[in-house]
Write a structure and sequence with these properties.
alpha+beta; Glutamine Phosphoribosylpyrophosphate, subunit 1, domain 1; four-stranded antiparallel beta sheet; 12 strands; 33% helix; globular; binds aspartic acid
Length: 325
Amino acid sequence: MSNKPIAAVLAIHGGAGTLLRSKTTAAKEAEYLAALERILLAGQAQLSAGAPALDVVVEAVRQLEECELFNAGRGAVYTAAATHELDASVMDGSNLQAGAVAGSSRTRNPVLAARAVLLHSEHLMFTGAAADAFAASHGLEQVAPEWFGTELRLTQLRAAQAGQRGARLDHDVETQSSGPIDDARKLGTVGAVALDAAGHLAAATSTGGMTNKQVGRVGDSPIVGAGCYANDTTVAVSCTGTGEAFMRICAAYDVSAQMAYLGLPLQAAVDSVIQHKLAAVGGSGGLIAVAANGDVSLSFNTEGMYRGYARVGEAPVMAIYGDVS
Ligand code: ASP
């Protein structure tokens, strides 16, 4: 270890996807950027006060879940049966402890349920009603399943079921999209990764999954090594995208493995996963990552990704499109 002071840093994402740049408004863009900035500033303040990375990523994802703009928690997408099944995971890079829930439909903040599993269970993942029961038994707020729903997401489900995706959507964005990234093609998971002042890494990921998904389908977001991974010796990673592809290539863990085994720097490992391996299995999406040395990567093979990072002592950086860092 060098004696260089560690610059604590938080990175977040709110999903990747197809852009509607020509169809959106500056006000809408500003709304998304403001939400990202608010959450980054809160996390930055926590980090500068010495909070552990695990607390910072959980709180950042909780705030993203609470924000209707993003597909996690309230504002999550619907299953094919017009229900909600939420997935989340957290991982502590200092000890490789992890917790996850899949198919939760009553716990207000799935990421808090995932943390409760990490903290209080010998197991790593609970599913469905048992996940909610576990969360409730640890004092986490339960809500009626309808609480997660919004008119916009229901409209998107109906459009998907009527086969209205694709070219037609671009002509009808006002009724189907809430922001600069096409909601119906957006891969709207949220996530956070952080390096704290003590040099510890953590990652958290939370999602409503994919619009019109089959009931019972679980994606990569709650799967440690696929949609979420943290290891103090290498990197913390949170993914968003077509979950089946991320699972097939063990995306989050592969970034770590390439750094550990090949000695690759962060961006080279991320490029290998997102630009090559993901594309090779037909996947699309992106990831955010913070390396043990403080390097940050916000990468995707889609047109855009809601994203940002904040180092302690520096102004936060936010972006949506692909042509800005
Ligand atoms: N990765 C998520 C899933 O497959 C979807 C997303 O990122 O929006 O469930």
